[in-house]
Amino acid sequence: MHPWYFNAVIYxxxxxxxxxxxxxxxxxxxxxxxxxxxxxxxxxxxxxLQPFHPSPFRDDGYDVTDHxxxxxxxxxxxxxxQLIEEAENRGIKVISDLIVNHTSDEHPWFREAxxxxxxxxxxxxxxxxxxxxxxxxxxxxxxxxxxxxxxPGGRQYYLHRFYDFQPDLNLANPxxxxxxxxxxxxxxxxxVSGFRVDAAPYVSRKAGWDPSVxxxxxxxxxxxxxxxxxxxxxxLMGETDVDSEEYGKYFAEGRGMNLxxxxxxxxxxxxxxARESCEPIVRxxxxxxxxxxxxxxxxxxxxxDELDLERLEPGERAEVLDAFAPxxxxxxxxxxxxxxxxxxxxxxxxxxxxxxxxxxSLPGVPIIRYGDEIGMGEDLALPGRVxxxxxxxxxxxxxxxxxAAGPLALYRPIVHEQPYRPQDGVNVMDxxxxxxxxxxxxxxxxxxxxxTPEIASNAFEVLDTGEDGLLGVRYPxxxxxxxxxxxxxxxxxxxxxxxxxxxxxxxxxxxxxxxxPPVAPARVDLGPYGYRWFKLRPG
Length: 539
Prior knowledge:
Layout: E1 10-13, H1 15-18, H2 29-34, H3 36-42, E2 46-49, H4 77-89, E3 93-98, H5 108-115, E4 127-128, E5 148-150, E6 157-159, H6 174-190, E7 194-197, H7 200-207, H8 218-230, E8 235-238, H9 247-251, E9 259-261, H10 263-275, H11 279-287, E10 296-300, E11 307-308, H12 314-324, E12 331-332, E13 336-337, H13 341-344, H14 349-361, E14 365-369, H15 428-432, H16 438-450, E15 461-463, E16 470-475, E17 481-487, E18 493-496, E19 504-511, E20 523-526, E21 531-537
Helix pairs in contact: 6-8, 10-11, 10-12, 14-16
């Protein structure tokens, strides 16, 4: 039997942006709880909560000051416990962010390290008398100068791969690693079903600086063991934006991450969409190592960060940027885009539907970013990555139904550019009652995906369809196979799928429109930006 996450559809939520329960202009945990029935109706069965810990919020909560608590902006531990319990009652697992590569510079550990250089907390961070090369790359080029910052008073420099107010933890210190495991145990016992490990490559790399550690990936194995010991069916999902050949090391032959966020495939998906050619996807799938038993990849279209394209070749990166970010204001860090999916695809309903059909048909577990299911837009007037972190649009009401606060009290403005305003139909209530809406389309895809856990089972065959713009994948089942076909072009295609010759057509699972059953499964017609999944009995 497959682990539960093989049949998961994960929904990613920024607590600040989802729903405001107390009219203070900012989303909160009680607001997420109040919207659980919506997630149930959509069909998702896993909820990834982005940071909810105490923080100065200079980096949307990724600058943590207390790993064992909930920010009073969002509620308290009781609110989180209620959310977890009510989610579990609806069959929804809760996954939380685990941010242990760095802390806020306002964390008590770092403050004590600054106050007393002889304190044990000094070795909780990484220091140097002078900046030197530690193989670290600044994650926000253009915003930060290098990865070393001088401490106040000028004694030494501290390492920060992200912002200078986020000093890197010294995971080569076994005491710090023990703290990480305690943090994990605390939240697992509270009820979360696992973690999305922020900046996983940096976590493993610094742990590997300790000569007593077997290799740089063994701390990931220790983290996985901690999850398994406290919650045997818990999940460890790694943020691993690395070259394809490195993915297998994070799986560690089944002893490491259960899930890996598949940045490699994600970037090639957008190259494919830009070209209307499936070749980049096929190539990326061939280059990825096969996950061990019980492990798989997690796929998405857009997330809370920039669409990072640094794994593509320079010419390929330029193609994607030219296609989806023609204006300089849409680009960021010289490597990616700060845009939502719907504007990237020109608010074209057919392209949005087929992009999601493609996501759900790829080997692995799909992740939906809040608001993408209704085609939300971005606000490029907001700085940096914040452009894609605007409030959820529930209705045409005041503040899009997100908050009862006055509009000026909102933590961020509602998107006001046409055609992405709530009054333009980009809201949940309007789309739930429209059988032709993007939301209804994605709900159908979620149902189809929940019926086909074999899509995450790592046993798949990319089919030769005879058409460059038509991706076909066959997933073997118990006597009946699932075939997914997705046409990412704006023209009708007729696939000639020789590997399906002799198979018997059983029935359609989901499609963009009504199609006649194929006379022979080896020839399948699809309309422009069309998709269809069906069941076959092998010949």
